[in-house]
Structure formats: C-alpha cells, structure tokens
Amino acid sequence: MHIYLDNAATTPVDKEVIEAMLPYFETAFGNPSSIHSHGRQARSAIENARKTVAKLLNCSPSEIFFTSGATEADNLALTGSVFSLDIKNIITSSIEHHAVLHTAEWLDNNGFVKIHLVELNKKGIVSLKSLEKILAANSGCLVSLMHGNNEIGNMLDLHEVSFLCKKHNALLHSDTVQTIGHFPFDLQKLKIDFLVGSAHKFHGPKGIGFIYINSENKIGPIIHGGSQERNMRGGTENIAGAVGLARALEIANQDMEVKRSELVSLKSYFIARLKEIVNLEFNGDCLSQNSLPHVISISTPKHEVNEMLLFNLDIEKISVSGGSACTSGAVAGSHVLNALGIEEDRGVIRFSLSKYNTVQEIDQTIAVLQRLFK
Ligand SMILES: Cc1ncc(COP(=O)(O)O)c(C=O)c1O
C-alpha cells in the first residue's frame, strides 16, 4: 500500500468532483464568450460556479474571479493593489509562500514599493506589536500575511490583523490557500480586501483557483487580453476547472466541523506516536490547538539516514515532503525553516493529512521511522 501524506502539496480529486467536471470536457465544451447554445451552456456553468463559491464565502459573486491558481491570485492581489490603489508599502513576513514573497520582492526591486517584514518569534508566530509599529510609521500600506503556513502549520488570527489594518487604514491580503476548505469564511464578518484559494488543495483539480476582491477595491488586471472575468483576466475560461473548484468547495463545506475534528484527532494521534521517537523535534507552532489541522513539521534526530531521508521514505512507499513541495527536502532549500533557524544537520519532514488518511497509515509510517532511526 502506498501512503500519501503530502496533502499540503496537493490532494487527490474527489470522485464527485471529477463527475461534475466531465460534461464540460465532453458535451458542454463551449466557449462562454460564444453566443450560441454551447457557449451559453458554458457561460451558465461558470457563473453558477462563481455563485456557489460566493455563497460559501458569504460575499457577492461579482467579488470572485477565477484564476489559474493561487500563485496568480497572490500576484494579482499584490501587483494590482500597487498599480491601481497607490500602495507604497507591503508589510509581510519572511515565512510567506513564494507566490507572495517573490512578488513583493519583485515590486520592491523595481522601485514600486518598500517591503517591511514583521517580527516573528522562535515558533514563527507573527508579532502583532511589530505589525502595529510598522503600520503606525507608514502610510499607503498593504498587509499580506498568510492565514495558515503550508510548511509549519502556524495559523494567524485574521480578525485581529484585520482590526489593526482597519485602524491604520491599510489594505489586507491573506493567502488562505491552506485554510479554505478546512475553516468556514464569512466575508461579511471578516473585513478583508483580498483572499485566495486553490482547488487542488481541497480535493479539486489543479490549474484553477480564485481571488476574492472586496468590491470597494477597484484594481486592474495583470493578464491582459479579452474581456473575460469582467476585464480582470484575459483568456478563455477554464470551465471544467471552475465547476470542479465549486463542487470541491461545496463538498469541503459539508460537515466541515466534523471533518476538521476528525483531522485534528488523527493529527493528535500522529503527534503522540511521533513523540515515541527519541530526540525528534516539532517545528513551528504545529503542536498548538491554533494550528492547521493537517500539517505536522518535524526535525528528525541526528542520523546518517537524514541525507537521503525523503528518498528512503519514498522507497518505503511513503510520500511526504521536506519543507514544501517545491523544495528538495534539504533544510537549506526552505526559506521558512531557515527563517526559524532550524538546525541544518537534522532532517525535516512535513507530514500533511487529508480526510482519506487512516490510523493504520500513521502506524505504518511510525514503524518505518522507528526502523530508520534505530
Ligand atoms: C500557502 C500557499 N500559497 C500559494 C500556493 C500556490 O498555489 P497554486 O499551486 O494554486 O499556484 C500554495 C501551493 O503550494 C500554498 O501552499
């Protein structure tokens, strides 16, 4: 049996999602810009998908724009607000996803904004004091802080951050990729300017995501072309993708609390079993109640097996990652683990769970780790 414990990188697509998507490849394949019936069918599918997403987040469909994924959505939030809303300062952290950090760095390197990094404690928790200090000293600010960290599982209190942003007249963007589908969002209650989601993180297809743009913010596109997505993103729409995203989000929202508490139980069990391994350490804030229900990051005991750790686990038919999916597994490859000062002579494993994982899989993984670190 192959064990997949890399769900923060991507998740398997739910069967019902595939079924919902299939007609849009086979029969309802029209281009929504066409005026004939095939086109109208496709138009109605994407607008229904938009309505579904908007309903689940409690916002207006006109505030949801489909994108190729969260990387594009993050780029759009940052670049769009700098070019259209006169943002001069981006306040972010050193442990954001590269979709945010590299975009902010590009904007800074090209003289459009100045980046300010908030202080973090040893576990990578954002100092709200430091955030407020930077907000008080600067005007024209966009705060971009992720809701849940994909490598170490830390979570941010978005309501607190939103309160500080409103107090100091700053815009707020959050990369909510790891929390959409796990936590409920009510955008009438949470005052936020931009948030983003990616279907493949919640059992939907790859290559489709969305951005919520609060209607008070009128920003321009970063992808120029046709008038699709109300002039916000040129290019023929990914109809099957949008339908799949909406269906996946719907499924994620059904019994969300139950599914989350099942994940939390599985995570707690996994943590308890990992503690049996001597000299293993947990990274970031993943042990706390206020962390992502599906992410555990560990530093393994010093041992020669660390050199080829992920490779060894792969041979044992266990798929995990080092820091994030886009790093090789070497500690030096992860800017997040580097920012936390994680010791380089240890191995790092990020385990990330989904509703499809079982206690048996955890037990089997622990047995392999015990054998490797004997
Ligand atoms: C926190 C976070 N932000 C952004 C992304 C990028 O998402 P996408 O693959 O949809 O571009 C990811 C995926 O790795 C992520 O985990």
Short description:
The chain has helices at 15-21, 23-26, 37-57, 70-84, 98-109, 128-137, 158-167, 228-231, 239-253, 256-274, 309-315, 335-339, 359-372, and strands spanning 3-4, 64-67, 89-92, 114-117, 141-144, 171-175, 194-198, 209-213, 281-282, 295-299, 318-319, 348-352.
User: In whole angstroms, how far apart are the ends?
Assistant: 23 Å
Bound molecules: pyridoxal-5'-phosphate
Assigned CATH class of the largest domain: Alpha Beta
Largest sheet, strands/sense/barrel = 7 strands, mixed
Average pLDDT, to the nearest integer? Answer: 95
Descriptive overview:
Helix content is 38%, strand content 13%. With 374 residues, it is an alpha/beta fold. The chain has a seven-stranded mixed beta sheet with strand order 2-8-7-6-5-3-4, sandwiched between helices. The longest helix has 21 residues, at 37-57. The two termini are 23 Å apart. The model is unreliable at 324-331 (pLDDT under 50).
